[in-house]
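**Archive record**
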Amino acid sequence: MKIAGFFLAIFVIASLIYAGGLSSNWGEIVINGVEPSMTYDLNEITGAPFKITNNFEDEIIVNLEALIPKQEELKEGYEPVPDTSWLIVQNQVTLKPKEQKIIPVKLSIPDDNNLTGRKFHAWVFSYTSGQAVGVGLKSRILIRFK
């Protein structure tokens, strides 16, 4: 990963988020000092890899996808991320009862100098499928450009 020439600070909100029998260690993360045309491994640079935990007594399938926030969901001062392709996340994971897995997440910024100084909000949405009642949770990703 190319690091020269930029300042990067990461803040991971310590509290876990829960949705029924599904939980994650990323409630909100803030990534400062990103630059156009760079790719960042968020698990590596946060020091707190994105983990999903199955708190159910049964095996579950968890689907994951990047989402663009709706206007009413936006964190104040942030724009919705222009394209979900900025976030690269594993599509699906199967978790045994009480199992926890680290999910790869990368941030890939396009080559666009108009991004300088701007702030964007994206979601990573994790949700169960194949059950009578599904649960889901959203992890907020806040991106601040140099």
